[in-house]
Design brief:
Blueprint (H helix, E strand, L loop, with lengths): L1 H29 L25 H11 L5 E5 L2 E6 L2 H9 L14 H4 L8 H11 L5 H5 L2 H17 L4 E3 L1 H17 L7 H20 L6 H4 L3 H32 L3 H5 L7 H7 L4 H32 L1 H15 L7 H4 L3 H13 L5 E5 L4 E3 L2 E3 L4 E5 H5 L18 H6 L18 H18 E4 L10 E2 L5 E2 L4 E6 L16 E2 L19 H11 L5 H4 L3 H16 L6 E2 L1 H17 L7 H20 L6 H4 L3 H34 L13 H7 L4 H32 L1 H15 L7 H4 L3 H13 L5 E5 L4 E3 L2 E3 L4 E5 H5 L18 H6 L18 H18 E4 L10 E4 L1 E4 L4 E6 L1
Parallel strand pairs: 2-7
Antiparallel strand pairs: 1-2, 3-11, 4-7, 5-6, 8-11, 9-10, 12-14, 13-21, 14-17, 15-16, 18-21, 19-20
C-alpha cells in the first residue's frame, strides 16, 4: 500500500518538474530580456530560494541592484515572478488593465480575509469597492474622531506612567491602536479578547511573509506539515472565533434596533460602527467577517507602526519635533481635543507623516498578477506572472530621493512634490486599487501624534535611520523594537505664552453685549471656555457642516433671483446680501425659512453691535452708572429685552419639533439622531435654556454679518478687477458647469476662489480689532506687559502693513500661493484669529462664502462704481462695514 502511494507521489512530482522545466525554457526563449539569474534545469532559478533567509535591507538592496535597468524575472518550481521599483514601472503596473488582480500569494490568508476587498479580483472587486466606498467618506470618518481622541489620551496616560524611562513603546502603541480599531469596527470597548486578537494578527502577518519568500512552502501539503503552518492555522482559527463572537453580538443588537421599522436605520447618521455599515449592505455573513478581519489586520498594525516610527524620527530630530509641537499648540492649544476640521490644518505634521511613510512604509511590498501580456520599457511580461512592487526600494532609491536615509519633511513641500514622479511615493499605493482606508489612517495618525507630541518630548537610543533594522513581515516591524523615552512637557512655557493663561481671557468690554451672549463661547474664560469649546466642537465638523450645503445653495439661488430682478442696475447691494444671509442663518439655526419677526430681529442686532462699539470708544461710559444715564443705554436695554423675549420663542418652537423627532428616531449607544439644525445640536447637549439662548444668539450675531461683508467685498474686489473675476468664473464653470449645485466636496476644489476670499479677508477683515486681557505678566520682545492689561490686536493694521504685504492695497490673490504663504509669518493673516481661541465657525463661514460667490459669479458679470480699493472707506461697528455702501451692478451672463 505505502509503496503505491510513494510511486504515485513520485509520478506527480516528476510531471510537475518536467512541466516547470519545459515552461521555463520556453519563457527564456520568448522573453530573453527578463532573464538574468543562474538557471538550474528542472528547478529554474533555484538560487532565488536563498532570499527567504535574508534581512529586509539585503532584499531591497538586491532588488535595487538587479532591477535598476529593467524588470527581471524569476522562475522557480513553476512560479513566475517579476520585481519592479522604478516609479515609471510602478505606474504601469498600478494602472494597466492587465495588472489589477491580486496574485495567488494573497490566498495564503484566505481563511481570514479570503473574500474581502484585498483578495477579490475583476468585476467582484469593482462591485464590492463601489458598495463600500461610502464607508470611508468624510462624514463617516469624522464620526470616529472622538474615539481616536479618547484612545490617544489613554495612550498618553500610559506614557505618563513610564515618563522619564526608556522602553520599547511598540507594543503599547500597537495594543492601544488595536483597542481603537475594535471599538470603531465593532463598537466594543476594552474587549477581554484583545490579547488573543493581538497574538492572532501578529502571528499571521509575520508568518505569511516567510511563507511567500520560501517558495516550496507555497504548496499547501508541504506548508501544513511545518511547525510554522500549524502555528498560522491555530492563529487563524483563534482570530475567526473572536471576530465571529463580536459579529453575532453586534448583529443581534442591530437587528433589535431596526426590527420594528427599517426606515429608522436609514435616517440615522453620526457615529455608526463599521460593522453596522456592512450589515446594512446585506453582504453574506462570510463576506462581512472577511471585511471586518481586513479592517483589523490591514488597519491597526500599519498605523501603529507609522505612529511608532514618526515618534522615533522626531526623537532623532529634535528641531523637527519642536516644529510639530509649535504647530499643534497653535491649532489646538494645551487642552483641546483634535476636531475633524483641525486635521487639514496640520500642514507640517502631514509632511512629517509622509516622510515617515517614505522611510518606513507600513507595507514594503505588494503584489499583482498579469491577466495578459504587459509591456514595461520595451520588456514584455508574460501572462500569469506574479509582479512584486517593492515600495521600500522605491522610497529609498537615491535616483529619486537625494540623500535618501536623511529624514527631511521638506521633501513634501508642494514644489518638491511637483518635481518628482508621482509614483515615487506610494505608501497607500495608487491607481484604482489604492488603499481603501487612507483617509481613516491619516486621521488616526494625525490625532494620536498631535496628542502625544503636545504632552511629551520624545527621546530615543537610535542615532540615525541606518541603525533601524526592519523585519520581514506582511506589515513592517522593527527588529529591535521602538525604544522611546517620554518627558512630560511644561505647556505653560510654550513660546511667548500666547497659547497659555496670559492670553486665555477675553477682554472686559465684551461684557457690554449684556445678557444676549453672556454665557456663550465668546465671553467664557479658562476651564469653562475649554469645556464648552470641547462640547461644541462637533457642531462645526465637516459631517455636520456638510449637511447645510443645500441650505446655502438655496439661499444663493434666492440672491440670484433678487439680482435678476434688477438687471444692469447699479445700487448698494450690501443690505440685500446681508438680509439674504440673515435668512440663511436663521434657517440653519432653527430650521424655518420664514420668520415673522426676522426683520425686526435684524434691526435690533444692528443696534446692539454698533452701540457696543461706541461704548467701548467712549471710555468714561465703561462705568455702568454713567452709561445708564445715556441715550444709548436705553436703546441697548430695549434691544436686550427684545432678544430675551423673541429668542426663547424660537427655542421653544424648535424644542417641540425636536422632541417629536426623538419619538420617531432612535439613538443607541452614542449614535446621534439625524439633526440638521444648530438648535437641535444644542438641545441634544442638554444645556440650560439660557446657555442655549446665548450660544444661538452668538451664532447669528457673530456669523451672518461677517460672512455678508466678505461676500459683498469679494464681489466689489472682483468687479474692480475683471481679470480676476474671469479666472474665478472659469474655475467655477470647470468644476460645476452651468447648472449643478455646489456640493460640499467641490469647495476644496475651488482653489483660486479660496485665494480670492483670503485676499478679500486680508484687505477687508470682517472684524478689524479683537482683544485679550492678561491674567499674568507677559513678555513681548523684552517688554513686560503687566497683569490685567487690555490688549487690542489690530487685525486690519497687520493685514495692510507693507512690512508683510508688498504694495498692500493691491488686490492680488496670488499672495496666497503655497510658496508665498510659507515665506510669510503665519500670524500675518488672521481673519479668523489663531491659536486655541480661533473662530469657532470658520468652516461654516468659508462654505457659506464659497458657495454664494460661486453661484453669483457663474450667473452674473459684476461691475462697480469704485475704481480702486483705496476708494473704499470702512467703519468699525462691531463688525466692519462700508461707509459708502457696496455699489454693484449685476449683468446676466
Amino acid at each position: 500500500m505505502w509503496l503505491l502511494v510513494i510511486i504515485a507521489v513520485l509520478l506527480v512530482l516528476t510531471t510537475f518538474i518536467k512541466s516547470c522545466d519545459t515552461h521555463s525554457i520556453y519563457l527564456t526563449w520568448k522573453y530573453p530580456k527578463l532573464t538574468s539569474f543562474t538557471y538550474v534545469p528542472f528547478l529554474g532559478h533555484l538560487g532565488f530560494l536563498k532570499y527567504s533567509y535574508m534581512r529586509m535591507k539585503d532584499i531591497y538592496d538586491f532588488v535595487e541592484r538587479t532591477c535598476a535597468e529593467s524588470p527581471k524575472m524569476v522562475y522557480c518550481l513553476g512560479l513566475k515572478m517579476v520585481t519592479v521599483y522604478k516609479p515609471e514601472h510602478l505606474e504601469v503596473i498600478l494602472t494597466h488593465p492587465n495588472t489589477q488582480d491580486k496574485p495567488y500569494l494573497y490566498n495564503f490568508m484566505d481563511p481570514v480575509i479570503g473574500n474581502s476587498l484585498l483578495c477579490l479580483n475583476g468585476h467582484a472587486w469593482r462591485t464590492r469597492r463601489k458598495l463600500m466606498n461610502p464607508l470611508m467618506q468624510h462624514g463617516v470618518i469624522g464620526s470616529f474622531v472622538d474615539d481616536v481622541n479618547a484612545n490617544a489620551e489613554k495612550l498618553a496616560e500610559q506614557f505618563s506612567s513610564r515618563a522619564g524611562k526608556m522602553f520599547d513603546a511598540s507594543i503599547k502603541i500597537a495594543k492601544n491602536n488595536l483597542d481603537m480599531f475594535i471599538n470603531v469596527i465593532m463598537g466594543v470597548d476594552n474587549s477581554d479578547d484583545r490579547k488573543d486578537a493581538f497574538y492572532s494578527i501578529h502571528t499571521i502577518t509575520s508568518c505569511v511573509m516567510l511563507r511567500i519568500l520560501a517558495v516550496p512552502k507555497h504548496l499547501n501539503f508541504i506548508y501544513n506539515l511545518t511547525k510554522e503552518g500549524k502555528l498560522v492555522h491555530h492563529a487563524e482559527e483563534l482570530g475567526n472565533k473572536i471576530m465571529r463572537n463580536f459579529f453575532y453580538k453586534r448583529k443581534e443588537d442591530y437587528q433589535r434596533i431596526t426590527a420594528n421599522d427599517a426606515a429608522i436605520d436609514d435616517n440615522r447618521t453620526g457615529r455608526r460602527m463599521i460593522i453596522e455599515h456592512l450589515i446594512k449592505l446585506k453582504l453574506p455573513e462570510t463576506d462581512i467577517l472577511n471585511e471586518l478581519n481586513l479592517f483589523l489586520v490591514a488597519g491597526f498594525e500599519t498605523t501603529a507602526f507609522a505612529i511608532s516610527m514618526a515618534l522615533i524620527s522626531m526623537a532623532m530630530n529634535p528641531d523637527i519635533q519642536e516644529k510639530v509641537y509649535n504647530e499643534v499648540m497653535e491649532i489646538i492649544g494645551a487642552d483641546r481635543s483634535v476636531s475633524h476640521n483641525d486635521i487639514s490644518r496640520f500642514v507640517y505634521m502631514k509632511k512629517v507623516i509622509h516622510e515617515t511613510l517614505r522611510l518606513y512604509p507600513s507595507v514594503t511590498n505588494v503584489g499583482r498578477i498579469t491577466t495578459g501580456e504587459v509591456e514595461i520599457d520595451g520588456h514584455l511580461i508574460p501572462k500569469n506572472t506574479q509582479v512584486i512592487l517593492s515600495i521600500l526600494t522605491a522610497h529609498r532609491s537615491p535616483l529619486y530621493w537625494p540623500d535618501p536615509m536623511k529624514f527631511d519633511p521638506e521633501r513634501f513641500n508642494d514644489d518638491a512634490v511637483k518635481q518628482r514622479h508621482r509614483y515615487s511615493f506610494i505608501p497607500f499605493l495608487a491607481g484604482t486599487r489604492n488603499c481603501f482606508g487612507l483617509t481613516f489612517a491619516m486621521m488616526n495618525m494625525t490625532i494620536v501624534l498631535a496628542i502625544l507630541v503636545r504632552k511629551f518630548k520624545f527621546y530615543t537610543s537610535y542615532k540615525s535611520p541606518e541603525e533601524i533594522e526592519l523585519e520581514l513581515s506582511i506589515t513592517t516591524k522593527c527588529v529591535k523594537g521602538v525604544p522611546l523615552r517620554a518627558e512630560l512637557r511644561k505647556t505653560s512655557s510654550h513660546g511667548s505664552g500666547t497659547q497659555t493663561s496670559p492670553f486665555a481671557a477675553k477682554v472686559i468690554h465684551l461684557q457690554f453685549f449684556g445678557e444676549v451672549v453672556k454665557n456663550s463661547l465668546l465671553l467664557l474664560n479658562g476651564g469653562l471656555w475649554r469645556q464648552r469649546r470641547k462640547l461644541l466642537n462637533p457642531l462645526m465638523q465637516h459631517g455636520v457642516v456638510g449637511c447645510y450645503t443645500e441650505d446655502v445653495n438655496i439661499y444663493a439661488e434666492k440672491l440670484v433671483d433678487f439680482f435678476r430682478s434688477k438687471p444692469n442696475e447699479m445700487f448698494d447691494a450690501a443690505p440685500a446680501i446681508a438680509k439674504n444671509n440673515w435668512g440663511l442663518f436663521l434657517t440653519v439655526l432653527v430650521g424655518v425659512t420664514r420668520i415673522q419677526d426676522s426683520e425686526q430681529l435684524l434691526h435690533h442686532i444692528n443696534i446692539l453691535t454698533s452701540h457696543v462699539v461706541l461704548r467701548f470708544i467712549k471710555i468714561f461710559t465703561h462705568w455702568d452708572f454713567i452709561f445708564k444715564l445715556t441715550k444709548e443705554s436705553k436703546l441697548i436695554e430695549n434691544t436686550q429685552a427684545y432678544f430675551q423675549q423673541i429668542l426663547p420663542k424660537f427655542i421653544n418652537e424648535r424644542k417641540e419639533i425636536y422632541h417629536q423627532l426623538e419619538e420617531t428616531e432612535v439613538s443607541v449607544e452614542g449614535n446621534s439622531l439625524k439633526r440638521r439644525k444648530i438648535l437641535d445640536h444644542l438641545l441634544s447637549l442638554k444645556l440650560s435654556d439660557q446657555v442655549i439662548l446665548n450660544e444661538a444668539a452668538l451664532f447669528t450675531v457673530a456669523g451672518f454679518e461677517t460672512t455678508s461683508l466678505t461676500i459683498s467685498m469679494a464681489l466689489l474686489s472682483m468687479a474692480i478687477h475683471p481679470n480676476i473675476q474671469e479666472k474665478v468664473y472659469e474655475e467655477v464653470m470647470d468644476i460645476l458647469g452651468e447648472d449643478r449645485r455646489v456640493e460640499h466636496n467641490d469647495i476644496s476644489r475651488l482653489v483660486y476662489l479660496k485665494k480670492v476670499i483670503n485676499e478679500t479677508l486680508r484687505i477687508f477683515p470682517p472684524v478689524g480689532n479683537v482683544a485679550r486681557i492678561t491674567t499674568d505678566e507677559i513678555e513681548i520682545d523684552g517688554h513686560v506687559i503687566p497683569k490685567n492689561t487690555h490688549i487690542i490686536l489690530s487685525i486690519l493694521t497687520t493685514h495692510r502693513s507693507p512690512l508683510y504685504w508688498p504694495d498692500p492695497m493691491k488686490f492680488d490673490p496670488e499672495r496666497f500661493n503655497d510658496d508665498a504663504v510659507k515665506e510669510r509669518h503665519r500670524y500675518a493673516h488672521i481673519p479668523f484669529l489663531g491659536g486655541p481661541r480661533n473662530c469657532f465657525g470658520v468652516t461654516f463661514a468659508m462654505m457659506d462664502v464659497s458657495i454664494t460667490l460661486a453661484v453669483l459669479v457663474r450667473k452674473f458679470k459684476w461691475y462697480t462704481t469704485y475704481k480702486s480699493i483705496e476708494e473704499i472707506e470702512l467703519e468699525w461697528a462691531g463688525t466692519t462695514k462700508c461707509v459708502s455702501g457696496g455699489f454693484l451692478q449685476a449683468e446676466p451672463r
